[in-house]
Amino acid sequence: MLWNPTLASQYLDHFDGGTFGNSKETKLVDGKVAVDTFRVHSIAQFNRFSCPSVKSSDALSDKREKASEERSTGIWHRASYSNHSYLPNVNRAFVGDMMIARAVKDIAAGEEIFMNYMPWLHVLDDRRKELKERYGFECHCRLCQTQAALATYKDTIRSIQECTRVALRHFLDGVRDAVLRDEGYDVATGKKVEIGRGNAVPKMKTLIAARYAARALQVLGNANAADAVNALAKRFFVDLCGLEEAFEAAFG
After folding, report:
1. How far is residue 225's CA from residue 197's CA, in Å, rounded to a whole number?
2. Which of 66, 101, 111, 127 is most buried per CB count within 10 Å?
3. Residues 147, 153, 158, CA angle at the centre, nearest 5°?
4. How would residue 169 be classed by pLDDT, with cut points 50, 70 and 90?
5. Would the pLDDT of 252 be above 70?
6. Domain presence at residue 69
7. Nearest to 33, CA basis, from 59, 65, 7, 63
8. One domain, residues 42 and 53
9. Are 90 and 161 members of one domain?
10. Vertex 125: Cα angle to 119 and 126 (nearest 5)
11. Which among 113, 109, 99, 20 is positioned nearest to 52, based on CA atoms?
12. What pLDDT, on a 0 to 100 scale, did the predictor assign at position 225?
């Protein structure tokens, strides 16, 4: 950058985090290029690529294998203009310090080139946090949008399910207090539902209420209580109609 201002301008054209102004031109001070080292470092942080650090002097295979585990970083000007996506249309590889970009799908003329800055194998929130810390943006590629929508959908379903449970419990309290007890039934709730009907007169509304209550208990996962209330509804029906067989025909 000091000795070739043309290359310096190309380097400064890359994204620097947005904190160094909009000027992309180099400035001369006393006939020399003035280099803002903080801006240079910021551009390197946001635009660098890592590559295997393999040297031609690595003659032995074990040295070569060890060297491949060590990572170097650099700026490849054209590649640095590509944006990130977890579903990229280009993959990159290296031969020495030469980057080779290969299309992984058909790319139309004028279509934007996307590369993967980071692996996608982490959960969505962790990926977004790391991208934000390292590159200053959140990814909204198709994969992230789909995962975010699924997370929202699951949260919505859980919220609906919890609201349904609350509503059903409120409904059951109403059946107990406003229907059964008002009609003379002694209702005791706990691990086991017990309903005394010695002082009660069966009515059709108590039968219907018991059927709804049994269904609500099934939805809440309390099968034993649902069976007990359903048996009570069956007794209501027999008391009202006198035929036990007709209950199954009427309510299944």
Report:
1. 17
2. 127
3. 130
4. confident
5. no
6. yes
7. 7
8. no
9. no
10. 50
11. 99
12. 78
Strand pairing class (114-115; 83-84): parallel
Query: What percent of the chain has pLDDT above 90?
Result: 0
Give residue for tokens 């102004």.
21
Tell me which amino acid residue 133 is: E
136 part of a folded domain: no
In a domain, 34, yes or no: yes
Residue 6, token pair as written in the block = 């043309």
What pLDDT sits at residue 1?
A: 64
Type of residue at 158: R
Give how many domains the chain has, as a whole number: 3
Can you tell me the distance from the alpha carbon of 138 to that of 144, in angstroms, rounded to the nearest whole number? 10
Range of the domain at 116: 48-120
Overall pTM surpassing 0.85 (yes/no) = no
Average pLDDT over residues 67-83: 74
Do 156 and 237 fall within a single domain? yes
Does the structure show a pLDDT above 50 at 87? yes
Indicate if 24 and 96 belong to the same structural domain.
no
Separation between Cα atoms, residue 2 and residue 17, nearest integer Å: 22
